[in-house]
Design goal:
Helix content: under 10%
CATH superfamily of the largest domain: Immunoglobulins
Number of domains: 3
Number of strands: 29
Shape: rod-shaped
Structural class: mainly beta
CATH architecture of the largest domain: Sandwich
CATH class of the largest domain: Mainly Beta
CATH topology of the largest domain: Immunoglobulin-like
Number of helices: 2
Radius of gyration: 45 Å
Length: 380
């Protein structure tokens, strides 16, 4: 009986040892899934490798691997060859990225006879392609000597923004602006600068236009992976001389003497020419000026300077004698104003006698008393 007991014990030990050895070779959580690249470019492949492992014994051969994606809009996956692990415990496949950047979860499920399935997940990041297009946002015309934002956004051939999601693939844009203009970098003014694109593939710089009228030409470019540059079409901001006027010159004709007879003759008109300049000495076009006179019954008139910074108009004629003060005032700079005095003199002998000496004026018949003439004037 004792011999039988010993045999039974030995048989039990052998069974236990055999069972433990079989359990130790099954895949466990040391199994893994990896990619040939942390960031795969859109429409490019990445090799995905799944390894079935046992913490103690290493790679497990003969395990079955299946793979699933959490979305198929960002790419596809196909196992290359057998879906059963080889002697190194591996199964490989190709993830083919679609045309949109993002991140996709690749889940591998490893099964083995008489063992609990093991799952492992890899998040595959998908990056944009190289820059191939640019969209600009800026004002094409601004006042000379002023600041204005200038924005550019780069995209790849699929329309994806050249963003900064990939920390090891930063995208810098170089800018150059023509002479006498500058980029304002927080109070530092430069003609060349390099700026990093944001998460939307966009960058905005502040442009200070030249103080003279004309084009402010901007050239921008983004470096490509091969070291070359993608340089889109040159952009231009036109500086317009329409700043607030600081100087106003004026000419009246005739000037010596500035007088006409009050006879209603349409040729007896005064011509006024005003020229406006900004603080840089440029002509100030498209500026409004109020014209007012001291003559009762005249109404104020608003005139606008032309491309030469000038305003011209005619005044008159009159049929009633008197002095008239013509005043021009800038509407955007009301401290800028000038006045000219003109005269319409009487040609009536009675009025002449009155103007010389009222005491010597002869008595007049009531029926011969002069009546005021109606006011006539014209604006150019």
């Amino acid at each position: 009986m004792r011999v039988y007991r010993i045999l039974i014990v030995l048989l039990g030990l052998l069974l236990c040892v055999g069972g433990l050895g079989s359990a130790d070779t099954i895949p466990d959580q040391s199994s893994s899934i990896t990619s040939s690249t942390n960031w795969v470019v859109v429409n490019h492949p990445a090799t995905i490798t799944i390894i079935a492992r046992n913490t103690t014994y290493g790679p497990v051969q003969g395990a079955t691997v299946s793979v699933a994606l959490n979305t198929t809009t960002l790419g596809t996956f196909a196992i290359t060859g057998d879906s059963t692990t080889d002697a190194s415990g591996q199964v490989s496949g190709i993830f083919m990225a679609g045309t949109h950047p993002g991140a996709v979860n690749i889940t591998a499920t490893i099964t083995y006879p008489n063992a609990t399935p093991v799952t492992t997940v890899y998040t595959q990041n998908i990056d944009h392609d190289v820059a191939s297009a640019a969209a600009f946002d800026y004002a094409t015309e601004v006042t000379v000597g002023t600041e204005t934002p200038f924005s550019v956004a780069f995209t790849d051939k699929y329309g994806n923004p050249i963003d900064n999601r990939n920390p090891i693939d930063s995208h810098y844009v170089t800018f150059h602006i023509s002479d006498y203009a500058a980029f304002d970098l927080n109070g530092t003014f430069v003609q060349d600068t390099t700026q990093l694109l944001d998460a939307q593939g966009k960058i905005t710089v502040t442009v200070l236009t030249a103080t003279t009228g004309g084009e402010n030409i901007i050239v921008s470019g983004i470096r490509l992976p091969d070291g070359s540059f993608y340089v889109p079409k040159t952009q231009s901001i036109v500086g317009v001389t329409n700043a607030v006027p600081c100087t106003l010159t004026h000419v009246v004709s005739p000037a010596s003497p500035a007088s006409f007879p009050a006879d209603g003759d349409v040729t007896h008109k005064f011509t006024f020419i005003y020229t406006l300049y900004d603080k840089f000495g440029n002509i100030a076009e498209n500026q409004s000026v109020k014209i007012a006179t001291s003559w009762t019954g005249d109404t104020e008139t608003i005139l606008t300077s032309n491309e030469y910074g000038q305003i011209a108009f005619n005044y008159g004629p009159h049929t009633t004698a008197g002095n008239v003060t013509i005043t021009a005032t800038s509407l955007t700079n009301t401290s800028l104003s000038c006045s000219d005095e003109i005269q319409y003199y009487s040609t009536d002998p009675v009025n002449i006698a009155f103007s010389v000496s009222p005491e010597t004026m002869p008595s007049l018949d009531a029926n011969k008393t002069q009546m005021p003439h109606s006011l006539q004037r014209s604006w150019m």
